[in-house]
Amino acid sequence: MGKEKRQKIFGTDGMRGKAGRFLTPYSVIRLGASAGIYFQQTPKAIHSKRILVGKDTRRSGYMVENALVSSLTSVGYDVIQIGPMPTPAIAFLTEDMRCDAGIMISASHNPFDDNGIKFFNHLGYKLDEDSERRIEDNYYDEELLNTSLKTGYEIGSSKRIDDVVGRYIVHIKNSFPKHLTLQGMRIVCDCANGSAYKVAPTIFRELGADAIMINDKPNGYNINDQCGAMHPQILAQEVKKYRADIGFALDGDADRLVVVDNEGEVINGDKLIGALALYQKQNNTLRGDKIVATLMSNLALEEFLKSHGIGLERCNVGDKYVIESMQKYNLNFGGENSGHIIFGDYAKTGDGLVSALQVLAYLKQSGKKSSLALNPFKLYPSEMINLSVSQKPPLEKIAGLQEMLDSITKSGNRHLVRYSGTENKLRILVEGKNIKSVKTQIQDLANFLAQKLG
Question: N or C: less crowded end of the chain, CB within 10 Å?
Fold first, then answer.
């Protein structure tokens, strides 16, 4: 193994790929043992020798789960298996049950034949890049893996627990204001045939909503299949059909939320972030009067927030980077326009159900229809070009580029130029108030970079 070319295991959100090809029983066993060794070596607040494992509803989850359990017990861990549960539930329950770590088996919004593995530390936070790098070091250390195998009484055990779902449901319901009820509200929720198919209807109905559930019958193959957060047009049709007040679309592991208003229109993610930030500001619950959003969020969001005395810190794409920035600046709210929204007072990661309840609380307190409440500003025109490249030289070393970017900024427009982390592509974004200048500037920028990069 040491002589083979070392490949990067982790992407922007854990390990993810085709089940049975990239994610095989052999690679999972090796990864599980590597992670177990890492968690044993890392100083932590507890030493429970327990790791929590959950999954979404993919058929391949059985294969991955059994391989993980085998590897973790082989290095001395006792494993608690809780079956299909949302990713944010794993984050919450890992800390709540005093485990050394939590593991979620899911490929999020990907098709059913992909799968993935996400790791959480004992506090319920996703691992940072340094921790992932140390697990990768273990993965390629043949001697360490062999000498870490336990024997006799030191081999771990596993058990399946089915009643922890109640803890998570109570936790989520506690994020909704105690003096409010959802009586009189009709909700349509698309569960994407994923991990929230049990908890979502329970939470909404126990709070008094008339909840209509769709795509809540997983069979191992239909997760995210023409449904959920990646296909909100299905939900939009149902909202209009049932004359609902609002619609929520989750993805396969329920850490993402897409909202459809009462008129059947899909709410842009930046508008949702802006509306929820203002709601918290008005309730005096927005810590530091500042939020975190990614480099992809529209300039109009930044200016809307500024007009209401709310600051914005930008970070790299990925909800774990949003969380890291929230911790860095001691903030309690942030999100991505793709639907990952983090309410730091209630969750350690994006949680579609927490976000949905905060949207509902805002609607109840404001008395506004969702079509009005969740459209607080207009987005600025935005253009993106993905440029295929054969090489990826440092952008700061491209002569003349900084001058072009400075001129775009000086004109009042916003730009973003970055290499893709997974493809040989350069992503170029320009946005601003004037569509004509946006189109001209992005084309000039793309032509310039195409010439420079071949």
Answer: C
Structure confidence at residue 424 as a pLDDT band (50, 70, 90): confident
d(CA 321, CA 318): 5
Q: Residue 304's closest CA among 271, 282, 326, 337?
A: 271
What does pTM read for this prediction? Answer: 0.92
pLDDT at 11: 83
pLDDT digits (tens, 9 = 90+) for 357-366: 999 999 999 9
The amino acid sitting at 450 is: A
Catalytic residues: 108
Q: Which residues contact 146 (CB under 8 A, 6 or more apart)?
A: none
pLDDT tens, residue by residue, 288-336 = 999 999 999 999 999 999 999 999 999 998 888 999 999 999 999 999 9
Residue pLDDT, tens place only, 190-221: 999 999 999 999 999 999 999 999 999 999 99
Question: Among residues 193, 170, 206, which one has the least CA distance to residue 84?
Answer: 193
Count the alpha carbons within 13 Å of 16 in the hemisphere toward its beta carbon: 16
